[in-house]
Amino acid sequence: MIAFDHVVKRYPNGREALAGVSFRIAAGEMVFLTGRSGAGKSTVLKLIALIERPTRGTVLVAGKNLGALPSRRIPAYRRSIGVVFQDHRLLMDRPVFDNVALPLIVAGSPLKETDKRVRAALDQVGLLGKERMLPLELSAGEQQRVGIARAVVSKPTLLICDEPTGNLDRDLAVEVMRLLKRFQNVGVTVVVATHDIHLVQEHESGQRTIVLDDGRIQGGAGEEPLPSIVASR
Amino acid sequence: MSIAVYGTRHAQAFLGSLGRLARSPFATFLTVLVIGLALALPLALQLLVTNASRATGGFTSAVDVSVYFKQNVALAEVQQRAANARAQPGVAEVTVISADDALKEFQKYSGFGAALQALEQNPLPNALRVRPAADAMSPSDLARLERYLAAWPEVDTVQVDSQWVERLNAILDVLKRVLLVAAVLLGAGVLAVVGNTVRLEIQNRRAEIEVVKLVGGSNAFVRRPFLYTGVIYGVTGALVAWGVMAIALGVLEGSVANLAKLYGSQYALAGPAAEEVLWLFAGGAVLGWLGAWISATRHLRRIEPRA
Ligand SMILES: Nc1ncnc2c1ncn2[C@@H]1O[C@H](COP(=O)(O)OP(=O)(O)OP(=O)(O)O)[C@@H](O)[C@H]1O
Ligand SMILES: [Mg+2]
Question: Among candidates A220, A214, A229, which has minimal Cα distance to A39?
Answer without folding.
Answer: A214
